[in-house]
Amino acid sequence: MSVKYVASSKLPTPWGIFDMHGFEDSQTGKEHVALTFGEWQNGEPVLGRIHSECLTGDALFSLRCDCGFQLQTAMQHIAEAGQGFLLYLRQEGRGIGLINKIRAYELQDQGANTVEANEKLGFAADLRQYDMIVPMLEKVGIQQVKLMTNNPRKVDAMKKYGVEVVERVPLQVGKNEYNEFYLKTKFTVLGHLMSEVHFHGND
């Protein structure tokens, strides 16, 4: 496996003090982070999220997606539960990178949905890989997860790499006038497990 653990430190946040564990992928040059909160016994199901990088939503407060809202809500839920993890994977734009994501946004401004925009640029709808989660979860001692996600592909990916998902925890947050079409595309085209009420105005 090309992903190796490097170092750990404390990370104070508005929700509490997390432990931050850094990993490097020697093949891709990407750097990934695992955040953990609290402690757990070996084999105990742990609440957590697998979150792919979204600079615009996570750091620039974009309302075009629900990523930043999901990131913050997941961290809040973990802190409230007293234990949990978040894997932050450097896979911007569902794997197409930041500049191509901006190009995709330009196409979306012209009327394309998020899947159509990626495909017009010559990419699949979702290019993310999840093999790097294996050494990351091994390092923090997790074999079973209660996964915060609306994406069935993430659940399938966990199973593919031998991680047991004992529960899928919905994470329907952040709907607004700018991302309603995006959320509807996630639901109708990408098969995300969201209730229709989430994007029809009655959260």
Commentary on this structure:
- With 203 residues, this protein is of the alpha/beta class.
- It is built from 7 helices and 7 strands; from the N terminus they run E-E-E-E-H-H-E-H-H-H-E-H-E-H.
- Strands 1-2-3-5-4-6-7 form a 7-stranded mixed β-sheet, with helices on both faces.
- Helix 3 (98-109) packs across helix 4 (114-120).
- The longest helix is centred in the middle third of the chain and has 15 residues, at 67-81.
- Mean pLDDT is 89; it is low at 199-203.
Strand-helix topology:
Blueprint: E1 3-13, E2 16-25, E3 31-37, E4 46-52, H1 55-59, H2 67-81, E5 84-89, H3 98-109, H4 114-120, H5 133-140, E6 144-148, H6 152-160, E7 164-169, H7 180-188
Parallel strand pairs: 4-5, 4-6, 6-7
Antiparallel strand pairs: 1-2, 2-3, 3-5
Helix pairs in contact: 3-4
Major sheet:
7 strands, mixed
> Beta-strand level of the residues, as a percent range?
25-35%
* Rough outline: globular
Spans of at least 5 consecutive residues with low confidence: 199-203
Let me know the average pLDDT. Answer: 89
- If helices are DSSP runs of H or I spanning 4 or more residues, what is the number of helices? 7
Query: Can you write the helix and strand succession as a string?
Result: EEEEHHEHHHEHEH
Rg over C-alpha atoms, rounded to the nearest angstrom: 17 Å
Which structural class do you get from the secondary structure elements?
alpha/beta
What separation lies between the terminal Cα atoms?
42 Å
Q: Portion of residues in helices?
A: 25-40%
Q: Which strands sit side by side, in order, in the main sheet?
A: 1-2-3-5-4-6-7
The total of beta strands comes to 7
